[in-house]
Write a structure and sequence with these properties.
333 residues; mainly alpha; two-stranded antiparallel ribbon; two-stranded antiparallel sheet; 12 helices; 6 strands
């Protein structure tokens, strides 16, 4: 069986990929604002025949490592794609996707064999691992165990004998790995602690983990909202298949309230970021994009009628990510 490339692209679920791109963009911006080289400037002058030296002026010249940013993006994207392919073949084998109300599935739709989709998942994780090794070799070897945990978590979401996605733990995975870990990790690979001696004074700076971890909170909550939009749509089919997602456990109305709560807390957490960078409040400029999906979530639509919710949430996630990234960079210039 030969599967056209367009179907492989569809199987990668492009609408879910903002969950991988946004944390890298925001984390890279945070890392840019926390990295660079120390510039110590002294001005010499003359007055009354005597040489005068002004006090040293210490500034940080920010620097962006594009290679590290690209590697971080590749890692995040292909872990997400690999996770999606694992979800495709695992749900297809279990029969969870026999009655689809969402986008096409490769195995359940008979468009690709289980073996082919497994290989696609392994190739995706392999590409992520290769980019991760480059980062580990140039930044820190501690990134290897972190990457292994991320990959295993992606596979165990719906793969294996006891997939945690079937027990309502998918939201926890998404918040931790596509919020805190991806954002803080993308910031860290931009950063190198430094110390500079100027005469008898030593100037040093160390990485502030609080800033990128807090920046990962709104990023993670928006990623969870994306998952919730998907799971609200699938409540009826997941219930029949025995997939006990949070949306299934709560029911349609309460799941909608949870979705709105996620967006509200994400907005509040963006507001708290002004403690580190006042320009981060620019992220709130994406609030108008939340009006439409909130209306859908609080409405009575079910199943296929909720298909627009996933796309609307993805647009909100992208908008918030772009504005937040732009704000953090602007506040660092």
């Amino acid at each position: 069986m030969t599967t056209p490339w367009r179907l492989w692209v569809a199987g990668a679920r492009p609408r879910t990929l903002p969950a991988a791109v946004v944390p890298v963009a925001v984390g890279t911006a945070v890392g840019y604002s926390s990295s660079g080289r120390l510039a110590i400037v002294s001005f010499l002058g003359h007055h009354g025949g005597q040489s005068l030296q002004s006090p040293a002026v210490v500034t940080v010249m920010h620097h962006l490592n594009w290679g590290h940013a690209l590697c971080a993006l590749i890692v995040a994207l292909f872990i997400q794609i690999g996770t999606n392919y694992v979800n495709d073949y695992a749900d297809g084998v279990r029969g969870t996707d026999e009655v689809r109300v969402g986008p096409v599935r490769l195995v359940a739709g008979g468009l690709a064999t289980v073996r082919a989709v497994k290989i696609a998942a392994l190739v995706s994780f392999g590409i992520a691992a290769a980019a991760g090794l480059v980062l580990a070799a140039t930044v820190s070897w501690w990134l290897i165990p972190v990457g292994l945990v991320c990959g295993l978590a992606g596979w165990a979401y719906t793969g294996g004998p006891k997939p945690y996605g079937y027990f309502g733990l998918g939201e926890v995975f998404v918040f931790i790995f596509f919020g805190l870990v991806a954002t803080a990790g993308s910031a860290y690979v931009q950063h190198a602690p430094f110390s500079v001696t100027n005469g008898s004074s030593i100037y040093s700076y160390h990485f502030d983990w609080a800033y990128p971890l807090w920046a990962g909170i709104p990023v993670g909550l928006l990623a969870v909202a994306l998952l919730e939009a998907n799971n609200m749509r699938d409540i009826e089919t997941d219930t029949v298949a025995g997939k006990r997602t949070v949306a299934v456990r709560l029911g349609r109305r309460k799941a909608g309230l949870l979705y709105v709560t996620l967006l509200m807390v994400a907005a509040v957490s963006i507001g708290v970021l002004h403690r580190w960078n006042a320009w981060a409040l620019l992220g709130l400029a994406a609030l108008p994009l939340a009006v439409y999906p909130i209306g859908l979530a609080l409405g009575e639509r079910k199943g296929k009628q909720l298909l627009p919710l996933l796309g609307a949430t993805a647009r909100l996630q992208i908008g918030a990510g772009l504005f937040l990234t732009a704000g953090i960079v602007a506040g660092s210039i």
